[in-house]
Amino acid sequence: MSILPLRDYQSECIDAVFERLDGPEPSQRTVVVLPTGSGKTVIFSHLAAQFRETHFGQDPRVLILVHRDELVRQTVAKCGAITGSTIGVVQAERNDYHAPIVVASVQSLGQPSRLDATTISLAGGPLLIIVDEAHHAVAPTYQRILRELGAFVSSEGLTSAVGFTATLMRSDDLGLGDVWQSVAYQRSIKWMIERGWLVDVRGKSVPVEDLDLDAVKRTAGELQSGSLGETMLASMALETAAKAYVEQASDRLGVAFWPTVEVAEQAVDAFTEQGVTSAVVTGTTPHEQRQHIYAEQLRGHIQVVHNCMVLTEGWDQPPVSCALVGRPTSSTGLYIQMVGRVLRPWPAGGKRDALVLDVTGAARNHSLATLGALTETPDRMPADGQSLVEFEMALADEQQDIERKILLRSNMVDIDLFARSTTAWLRTDRGVWFINVRDGWYFLFEERDDSGYVVGFAPNRGKAERLTEALSLDVAISLGEAMAMDRDPSLASKVSPWRKRKAMATERQLAVLHEPAENPKELTKQEASDMISIKFANQRLKWAAR
User: Fold this and answer.
1) CATH number of the domain at 8-187, please?
2) Which numeric CATH code is attached to 193-410?
3) For residue range 57-114, what is the model confidence (pLDDT) as tens digits?
4) What does residue 164 show for φ and ψ, rounded to 5 degrees?
5) In terms of DSSP H, where are the helices of 151-221?
C-alpha cells in the first residue's frame, strides 16, 4: 500500500525540513509553522516515514512528543495509518521503547525512569524527534527531554529535532529562539484560506458596556486570567455573550473560550438560560466524559462547548463553525490558536465559513488581538462583520491586483474535498461515499460515537471489513483514495481515458439498469457504469449510512 498522498504545500514543507536538516547550512533543531487544519500530523507522519527510508540500514528511530496524554491515541491512529509502521507508545502502563516510531506524551516521558530507559533504547542510530505544539518546547521538561536525547549535542547529525506549531508567539517572555535555530517552513491562516484549504472567517464584536478592562491586572502586557475572570463575573459579559450568540450564531455549533474555570461554568448557565444547550470541559474532566460531550455536540444535542484554555490545542471538531472569544487577549499567538479551532472545512455538513465573536470592553481601546491578526496589514483590518476574504478582495481592488482577485474569487466557493479529488468518488442514496474497484468498493463510514471516519472495503462477495481506526475526514479520504488507486487505478481514477470517451451505454448496462434498449436518457458508458456502481452499493453499503 502506498503512503497517504500529500498536498502540494505539504510536500514542499517536508522538502524544506530536510533541506534545513541536511543542507549546506544545517540546523539541528528547526520548526514548521502551519495553522490548525493544515494537516500537521499528516506532514510529520510522512516526515517520519521518509526519515526512516533515508537512513535505511542504520536503525533509524523516530520519537513524536505530544503535549498532553489525551493526544497520544489520535496521533498513534493517524501516524500508523499513514506510515504503515508499528507505532510504540510511552504512556500509562505502556513502555514500547523499541518500536521504530514511538509516540509519547511529555508528562509521561518527562519521568526520570522513563526518560533514562528511552535514552538507552534510542541510542546508537539516527534519531528524529518530532515535537507537536512546539511553542511549548521552552518549558523545562521539554528541554530536559531534548537535551537528554542529544538534540543539543552536535553528534554528526545523529539526533535532529523538528517542531510543529500553529504559532511561534508566546504571551510570556520565554524565548523560542533558545530552542529552535531556524524556521524551515511557514504558511499563514490567510494563505490557507485564500487557497481554499481553510474556510473563510468573519468577526463580530460583542461590546459589554460595563466590562472595564482597564481594571484588569496585567503581566508583561497580557491580561491576567484571574483578574480578568473576576472583572467579567462582576459585569454583564456572560449574559451579553449568550444573547449575542443567539442573535449571530443560532444555527452554528460553537466553542467558547473563557479566562477561568469558574467563568466557563457560569457561562454554561447563562447560555442555557438563553436556550443554547451547553457543556463545559476543564482540565480535570475525565477523557471518557470529554469524548461523550464532543459526540453529543456532533449529534446536535449540545450546541456550545465552553472551556478555559483546554481546547486551544489538539481539539479537532470540524463541524464547529463559531468561536466565541470570551477571553480577551493581547497575545496574537493565543488569539490565532482560539480562532484556528473553527477553520477546518466540513463539506459533508455544508460548512461554508466560520464566525468569531469577540467579547470586548465598550471602548475597544485595550490593544486586544482581533481578526486583524490574521492579515498582513497591521495598519488595516477587516470591518466588523467583514470576512477575511472580503477584506482581502477590497485590498486587491484598491491595488488593482487582478491575479490576486482571481485567486481569492476562485476559492470563495464551497470547499468540497470529494469534488477536488482526482479519484472517482461516488455516493449511495443514503449518503455513503465509496470508490468502485474491480472486486468491490472502498468506502467511508462514520463511527457511531462520532470519533471520526473509518475506511472500509466491501468485496463483491463476502463480509465487509474496516481497514483503519477512526480518522479525520481529510485523512480518511486520502487513505481510501490511495488504497483504491493501488488496487485498481483504471476504475478508481476520475481521469482514466475510458471516462473521457463519449461512447454510449451498452445494451448490457441498460439491462442492468432496467433501461430500454433505445436508451431514452442517452446515457454514456461512463455514466451508466457509475449508476450501476451506485445501484449495487446501495444494497451492499446500506448498513454504513448514519
Assistant:
1) 3.40.50.300
2) 3.40.50.300
3) 788 999 999 988 778 888 998 899 888 888 999 988 888 988 999 999 999 999 999 9
4) -130, 130
5) 189-194
